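Why this split exists: single-chain examples teach little about how molecules sit against one another. For that reason, every record in the complexes split bundles all components of an assembly together and asks for one structure covering all of them. Below is a record exactly as it appears in the raw files.
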Amino acid sequence: CEKSGFLKESPTDRFVEGNFYSSPSDAQAAVDAVYNQLYSIYDRNMILLNDLPADDEKNGLGMPNQYLQDLEFLKYTTENTFIQSMWGSNYSGIGRANSAINNINKMSFDTTLKARLIGEASFLRALYYFNLVRFFGDVPLILDLKTLKDAIIPRTSTDSVYDQIIKDLQFAEDNLPVNYDSKNLGRATSGAAKILLGEVYLTRHDFQQAADKLAEVVKHEEEYGYGLNNDFADNWKIPTENGKESVFSVQHLPPPGHAIGLMTLEGPKYSVPGGGIPGIPNTNEADIPTMDLYTRYIDGDTRKDVTFKIEYLSPANGQIYKSSIPLFGKYWEEGLTKTGNCDINMQVIRYADALLMYAESLNETGNTADAVKILNRVRERAFHDTEHDYADLTQSQFRTKIYLERRLEFANEGKRWFDLVRTGRLLEVMKAHGTLEAKLAESNKTTITQNARAYQSLYPIPQRELDLNKLLTQNQGW
Amino acid sequence: CLQANASTYAQKISISLKNTPLKKVFKAIRERTGYNFIYTSEVLQDAVPVTLHEKNTALKEILDKCFLKQPLSYSINGNIIVVKKKTASKIQINTDTTIQIKGIVKDSLTGNPLSGVTVKMKESTIGTMTDGRGRFSLSVPNGAILGISYLGYNKKSIRVNGSQDLIIRLSAALTGLNQIVVIGYGTQKRADLTGSISSIKPSEIQGTPITSVDQGLVGRASGVQVIQTSGMPGAIASIRIRGTSSLQGGNEPLYVIDGVPVYSGGGYGRTGGKTQLSPLATINPSDIESIEILKDASATAIYGSRAANGVVLITTKSGEKGRDIISFDAYFGTQSIVKKIDLMNGADYAKLVNEAYTNDGLTPPYSQEFMDNIPNHGKGTDWQDEIFRSAPIQNYELSFMGGDKKTSYAASLNYIDQKGIVLGSGMKRYSGRINLDRQMNDKFKIISHLSLSRILSDNVPTDAGGTDGVVTGALNFNPLLGIYENDETKSYTLVNKPGILVPNPVATALEMKRKNNTTRLLGDISGQYDITEGLTAKVLFGIDYFMNKASQYTPSNIYQSGGVASATIADATYTNWLNENTLTYSKTFNQNHSINLLGGITFQKNKGEDLSGSSQGFVNDVLGYNNLGSGSVYNQPGSSTTEWSIMSFLGRINYAFKDKYLFTLSGRYDGSSRFGTNNKFAFFPSGAIAWKASEEEFIKNLNLFSNLKVRTGYGITGNQEIGLYNSLATLGAVTYSFGTDMVTGFNPNKIPNPDLKWERTAQYDAGLDLGVLNNNISLTADYYYKKTTNLIYSVAVPLVSGFGTSLQNIGSIQNQGFEIGLQTNNLNRAFKWTTDFNISFNKNKVLELGGEQYKDVGGGDGHLKTGQVHRLIVGKPIGLFYGYVFDGIFQDNTELDNGPDGPTNYLGGKRYKDLSGPDGNPDGKVDATYDRTVIGDPNPDFYGGLANTFSYKGVELSIFINYSYGNDILNYNAFQLGLPSGGQNVYADLVNRWTPENHSNVYGKATTNRSAIFSNQFIEDGSFIKLKTVTLSYLFPKLSVKWLYGLKVYITGQNLLAITHYKGYDPEVSYRGASNLETGEDFGGYPQARSFLFGISVNLN
């Protein structure tokens, strides 16, 4: 009697399973929660695991902690918190996607909308698993978690995980629209699904399928509304960031929305006499470019002044302050005084990437001539001329050129490590990097050359997970 | 003789008897009149024979003659004549030999008159009681001996020597076995207790700079460990009664204030750091009449599911009948920091910075010219001097107490203003209380308590760890920088540089406004009805209304704002209502069996309502946090509404046989909303036996013990403090944006657990109460064993599940210990000396952790990235520190080559011990899996207190010492203060850091590389002995002013001296507040102040 009434716990300020997943707007909200996980995966961490351990980024004088230093010097262990966070936040996104997909499947409402929503969640689930297999290799494949026991399983082979990724992306490309209205900018589109699928094939060295899939978009780019911005910088400007070059990006808004922390983390502090730009407090120069990266850009490349920033305008006194070293510039929102409010979107897939991946696939399938044409589109945009176009490249020469092009194009965008591993150049490049940096900047960088090991092409499975699930095995070498 | 009437007296009879026993006289009268006599044979024992020769005489006259010489009286009730022994006052005094005396009885200490004191001529029935003003008058033979006795006071005898005005001073009894002790849902004589209960005299903490009763419990009772979490005015003290028995649930005792159960938890408020404010600070300590701490299951089980951590019963003062007293108390004082930490001055620091940069091949920041011109003659800025201050404290109190036959009242007003020793901090309390009792008629009584208080608290962030918090800031900030970047425009130096991002602590303290305004209404009203003799029903309604408004304003001119001013207001309201319905029955049968029964049903419900809002971008700082609408950007608001409820059935049986053998059985059947649907209710029983050996003849014959009692008990109690809605599969809200539109998404944020149930603590207690030399030495000793099972813990689950943790009942933990309280009356003449000593030993042990052998717990420090620093290990105590073992500094290349391979392997780098490896042997590598070990234990081996009071005439000196031995502290501050990185200030001692010329083996080489490896280097011995409180008071003797009844002045010193090896400010510290798993940490804590007070206490008639 009293048991049911006086002591019943029925919260009135939050949802509980059982009173949710009933209306289409509930379904929408369940899918929107899957997007939210992009923040913790991408906002800094994707760069920390892709660019910091590679040859593009290093720790600034902002007194980095041990885990960051370990990443820079390739000394990280199974307990590195950033690696664990990458593992955990992707799985958290997968959990949300699973719960959205499985619950929406049980609901009945407008079939087009339902398929779209499941398609969005499938796209994100594929993206999250794609991150996991690239960082960690074999990973547990979980598509439905009913009880905790469902999480205590061994690692699933990379091939099987890829099968699921491809299945999800195929569902997404079939059921997602080409574009959305202005209130839905940033949702996954069928074009994004196709390009991501192309990247999956490319990563698996399935070059023909990659070329075919990417061709579906590139050959019909106007239907999809894709193209390159004339100005490279437009990709990181608020009015144009959702333009034709943006295929899929993490959407930011200043508070009360979710801003991006990179302006704070990459902004100047130690390298400017006086310690920062007057009127723009709070920058801490934690994540900075390597000289190795900076010296790769040649004169005339408009990407250099966008990727790096040396001169800063003080809103307090109108003076220009110069940094003694180049710092990253893509996420510097000019005119903002509170860096924590920076809301530049983080590009996950730009159309330039689709083009370069397409070019790479063409080259690998023997069509170097067409590949060069595509590559030159990206170079022409970069140099605003055709004088820097490539011609008459062999397949092998093309590789060298396109690898460099990707580095120049996507610096500070969280792609470097994936590229190095995908193309099998990790060890060679990192050994060279240590030596080069030592000459260019800091003597202690030679240790990177010593520390680089082949097995680092996969990150270690976080120790915490091994401890909690005895069925898991560690990657080789760790 | 209410019903005697004229006809009765008019009836005339004749009777003639000679030397006849009274009994036979009664028989003769009955036969003649039909009147019956009622008496007991005992009454007639002392009757004398009667001789009567009456004819046609009225019955009354005959009866009067019968009773003339008898020690008896009679009354007529209808046709019944009741015969009783004569009462003392009715005894006729032979006026020829007696004299009239009068006098007053006072408390020897306070001078307060004592009412209701029995004044009796020895070996007679002549006696009286003092009135409301402590006065009495009596007719006694000259030279008679008067015995004066009063509950809770030592008896006194005086010889009457002529007619005079007597002034009799009674001293309070050191051990009052007759003292009435408040127990759950009732009271009991201390002598009759079967459970383990410590009583604390509130007078011990009154007149000391203590704003909340929890702080005042330090060292006062055995088995009660009080952890001062912070020195911030109004900060909560965390209390562990007989050890920590929960990993993750609440560990604080249940407080019951005038019958209303209130769980104070880990505190409340938003102070900017981990410091939390004490809800108990809303209770004026001077309003408290008694504090009882229930420790064992026999005492606590009546509180069932909330009793596992012990229960603190607080009873507030009520008025005394027939005595109106107005008291005024005030004290004023000053507080200051006890010690400073010796840090580098500007010149030494500049050298260090340049050296660190040079060592790393970087350009040194400071030029020689700069170094030659460091302000303040090379000293730079002493940031500790800048944030600490000498702070005043003042307290005023006015109270009115008294009552008449039917009504008693106590009313008080209090105002305290305590500034904090850290710039910008402080609290004020305004409080008022009215306690009113009224006997409505013979059977019905109304009892009410009502208090209203308001606390205005100004907070600065301390205990904030990492780089935040003003104390951390003051320790770490570059001494070469000034408070202002520009002294003329007063624009602040925003942040420490070069190095770690520490906001300017002075700017933070002065400019960032954090206010916690709290209003609390706590009251109850109950009706008590005596149904028949011994049977009483009581119905109580109580309410606890608690409202906190936390406001914060961050102006644009300090670092934390990022250049944009912002304001936040968070409002939290809790409304907690209670209904208790109890029946009590007590009776004594045949003088040998006495029983006391209690039964009841109670309901309690709590509703919490939160609302918060914030905005940013204010035009200027004038409006502060008072108008969120004037900001230019509005942030997402937040709100929540939560509810929990408990319903309980409770019962207790106390049975005493011959007042020697005492038995108690009690239990509570509790249902709580917080648990899974499968486990809503649970039963918490207890039983105890005590034997008052000193009542046995053979013990009495030993003439050794004035008191000897052994007692033992066992029971089960529970812990329901697991938070709300934790068994349910709830969804959490997150946001995302599409283009410029924000959307809210929902995702499951918890794995449901419908089996979630109570933590269950089974406790065994065996105790001994012993008094010798007329209780001049009395000792209470207890052994206990507590085992808690079904521990609630957020078990780490594989992240692949999408969740990090799941709340489960996984393990068990035990506490066993021994505690002693010793009170002695060392000297008891004109010069008096009493000692009160207690010591407690508790051993904690984790028994089971859901099948695992250990768990790493706690957050470590986010800024230092220490990782987890505590490990729970099966078979070991809770809270152990787990880390690397520091092994000196690499002095040369040979040492470096010998390794082991660690994180700081360079000349002048720190070396850590290679303890083991994958195959069980050192593997030449220092890593987390094999080379960490237990490096410290935050649990004390023993702790306690020692109070000595000396008095001579009106002068009294009391000295209170508290101590703790064997507890380790993780000095987080030392991570940064011992790190010569040039990124923050360090210990002055680091001038002796490692250099190629100076081979230090403690402090490494200066380098900007910041390695925060958690090693035993940061574990320090936290044992201490503190001279906590010294009070010297003077009670003025005879006062000629009539209206002035007592006048006392005193001076008090608090935290005068500490003997400790701990290098931080204060070994009484807990950076993580009332945390269970992460005790014994210090990171930028608010140090406790040394205070000096002057006080005055006046009693008016």
